[in-house]
Amino acid sequence: MQASRPLPITRDLVLLGGGHAHALVLRKWAMTPLPGAQVTIVNPQVKAPYTGMLPGFVAGHYDRDELDIDLVRLARQANARLVIDHAIGIDLERKTVQLGASPDLAYDALSIDIGITSRLIDLPGADKHLVPAKPLGTFSIAWDTLIERAKTTGLTPDIAILGGGVAGVELALAMAYRLKTELAGDGRVRLIEAGDSILGELRPRARNVLANELARSNVDVILSTKASKVSEQGIHIASGTQLVEANFVVSAAGAKPHDWLEQTGLSLNDGYIAVDEHLKAIGAPGVYAVGDCAYLTQAPRPKAGVFAVRQAPILFDNLHAELSSRQPKSYKPQKDYLKLISTGRRSAVTDKWGVGLSGDWVWRLKDRIDRKFMNQFRGVMDMPSTQLPPKVADGVSEYLQQHESPCGGCGAKLAQAPLTRGLGFSSKSMEDAAIIGPADHARILSTDHLRAFNSDPYLLAKIAAIHALGDMWAMGTAPEAILSHIILPPLASEKQANMLREVMAGTHEIVDASGAKIVGGHTSSGAELTIGFTVSAPAGCKIVRQNGAQDGDVIVLTKPIGTGVLLAAEMRQVADGDHYLATIESMLRSQATASTVLAKAATAMTDVTGFGLAGHLLNILVASGVAAHIDAQNIPVLNGAIQYAETGIRSTLWSSNTTQIDRVDMSDGALKDLFFDPQTCGGLLATIPETQIIRVLAEFAEHDEPIWTIGYIKAGSPMIDIRDRYSASGRKRLGN
Fold first, then answer.
1. Nearest CA-CA partner of 304 in 263, 343, 348, 334
2. Cα separation, 17 vs 112, whole angstroms
3. What residue spans define the domains of the chain?
4. Cα–Cα distance for residue pair 118/155, rounded to 1 Å
5. Of 11, 82, 246, 644, whose CB is crowded by the most CB atoms within 10 A?
6. CATH (residue range 432-544)
């Protein structure tokens, strides 16, 4: 009887852009995946704002969280990889997408949902002084910043909006309402239109209602005025002799497709991707386009989010069909749609069939529709569970009940207790790397690997390389030669080369920057992606070990803790995308400079990885025969880590790490739990003589490297005493 095994990846689907249609496709994919197909979603940000709720957000009716679709959570639910990047080209012949910072992505099917941009971004001075209404993420940050500055510094918002269409009018009314309700009407809003009228796309009744709302809200409307440039002073009129003063200039006019599409060879209509009734790009096998970036050749329609939403089910079916050789379905857009236009306050206007109804009830209708749409992307989706056969050995069921799905990264490491017992090591002999050879020609040798916690091979390779180099940096030396050890998941043969290419691109990016060289390695196939490296370095004149900490030394840490709980929260679909991205960025920060500076002064040093801050500090204390005081307020923690720890989220290695909890004297709580949190690519933990600490901190500041002083070494048996502040013998707290 053949044992069950994971299905190979045989097809690659790339979703370029995080627009409404793609968000819905990912949601449907999570519920009905296509086994054998790997999905990749590419977007410049981890969150995709929902267009329909933007005016409500500007007016203050919605928080930013209510506006955003979290692509990190959505990708986890759909078992898709998320690449935070933007496209710069498409090679239709090679069937690849070129990205701004990441390696090319190969595709068998490609769907494009990248929206549009503003024509006015080409105005002189626009790059510094103009805020386009799209992309929404960038705009919302700029708007939040303006309101915060007005509240904290007394800045008077002087707002000018270019474009008198529906988008510009909605923004003007929302901004005027926000100034009235939060700033007591301090500031002004002006709407500038190049033509001789506003709201030309609406019917007369709706247009009249909104014109009255503009007058009611004291929004000045300036017609027949065309901008020639934007400066710090405001908008310069085409004649060059007039100036509309403003300290916040928004473009809601002149939407246009992205310029780079012109170089792709795709069939375009006025710059928009021409698609047929199946949403398939004309003359481009395997390529689809939806939303504002697409032009429906069989039934042209205006640019509106409602069409992207209606396209999503057809796109989902046709992408399934494209990847499994089935017949596609046709998309038939509706001829008209109901426009619901906000008036700033909790009121709205309808526009359909010549009817311009308005009132609070219209707002409530719009709010209900918008929230229903966004609720699709909230909450946790049930993931497949392990199906046991009818008969299993004793202990299997109990094990699965006690152990959740294992974490990746350092959360997948073997716990310290069974590791030391199995290898026959004592904790005193556990250095970060082995020292081999005679003293005058000694070398340092270490090996490490990571089990995948993310499905992006390029990103994982960079993290795994940083992680492996950490053992060299922890001993104060520079890596020299590296062997790679790569296990690829089940893949069709042509996909193996693509994944290996991405792995090596990420590896070289980190290794080359470290000054080391890849001299060989081994690659095999297994159940899941695993990336590791063996690293060698010359011992040099001084090796920093773990056994030199002395009474009075200051304890320093170079990265915040919390990666274990944050990766576990992401795996459980509850991590905020911004928190997750910050965690990845922290893991990717090299410790080469930090190692060089610390090695000149450190009496003991290690890197904080799988055993957590408590475990690795205890290793130093046991090896050195000393104890430690820790200032709890000085322990750096990643954003969100406390929040998730308070809800009981733990990495799978956490409970094993807490076997040493009797050596840690600290009040119970989330921070104590994080003290045992396994770290992936954690910071360097070092002890520095007090006479050297000021110089070390100054050198870190000079290199713009972060460092925290978290405590000090004291005489005594290996114990960690954690308090809110230092208190021993008048010792004063050192700044970070």
1. 334
2. 6
3. 11-115+257-337, 119-256, 432-544, 545-736
4. 27
5. 82
6. 3.30.1330.10
Q: What tens digit of pLDDT does each residue of 520-540 get?
A: 999 999 989 999 999 999 887
pLDDT of residue 421: 60
Q: List the structure tokens of 483.
A: 């062997």
Give 237-280 pLDDT, tens digit per residue. 876 568 899 999 999 887 789 999 999 999 999 999 999 999 99
Phi/psi of residue 49, each to 5°? Answer: -65, 145
Coil, helix or strand at residue 715: coil
pTM of the model: 0.90
Q: What is the pLDDT of residues 397-415, one digit of tens each?
A: 776 666 565 555 444 555 5
* 559 touches 589 (CB < 8 A): yes
Domain 545-736 class?
A: alpha beta
Which of 290 and 389 is assigned the larger pLDDT? 290
**Parallel, antiparallel, or unpaired for β 268-269 and 272-275?**
antiparallel
Give the burial string for 598-624 (b: 16+ CB within 10 Å, else e): bbebbbbbbbbbbbbbbbbbbbbbbbb
Contact between 670 and 646 under an 8 Å Cβ cutoff? The reply is: yes
Phi, psi of 711 (to 5 degrees): 170, -160
Residue 385 tokens, joined:
């569970």
Closest by Cα among 273, 234, 313 to 16: 273
31 is written with which tokens? 């519920």
- Nearest Cα to 302, choosing from 277, 339, 356? 339
Over residues 583-591, mean pLDDT: 97
The one-letter amino acid at 202: L
User: CA–CA separation, 66 vs 62, rounded Å?
Assistant: 6
* CB within 8 Å of 19: residues ≥ 6 apart: 48, 113, 114, 115, 290, 291, 292, 308
Provide the 10 A C-beta neighbour count for residue 517.
12
CATH number for the domain whose boundaries are 119-256 = 3.50.50.60
pLDDT at 44: 93
Is it the case that residue 734 has pLDDT exceeding 50? no
CA dist 43 and 53 (Å) reads 20
Residues 22/116, Cβ–Cβ less than 8 Å: no
Tokens of 191: 């709407």
Identical fold at 11-115+257-337 and 119-256? yes
Residues whose CB falls within 8 Å of the CB of residue 580, separated by 6 or more in sequence, listed in order: 46, 72, 566, 570
CA distance 632 to 654: 19
Q: Is the peptide bond before 560 cis (omega within 30 degrees of 0)?
A: no
The maximal CA–CA distance of the chain, rounded, in angstroms, is 90
Task: Judge: domain 11-115+257-337, CATH 2.60.40.10.
Answer: no
Percentage of the chain lying above the pLDDT 90 cut: 72
